[in-house]
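Fold it.
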Amino acid sequence: MPCTEARKRANAAYNRRQDSITIRPSREDGAAIRAAAAAAGQPVQVYIKQACFERMQRDGFTPPEATDADQPDT
């Protein structure tokens, strides 16, 4: 199914609202992470985000309050 112009615009708008964090594990670590995510019945991204948020909570990290200055211009 070809990508319509409307879909391309929607994808671009979505990507502008999102952050991108890249990790580059070794092949062995990547395989272990993928296997653990599959065993948990989760996509890899969800599994990694959950692990990060659990660590943040365990470490007592509290994110700063968002302000209007932190919001993107629309």
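The two ends are 31 Å apart (CA to CA).
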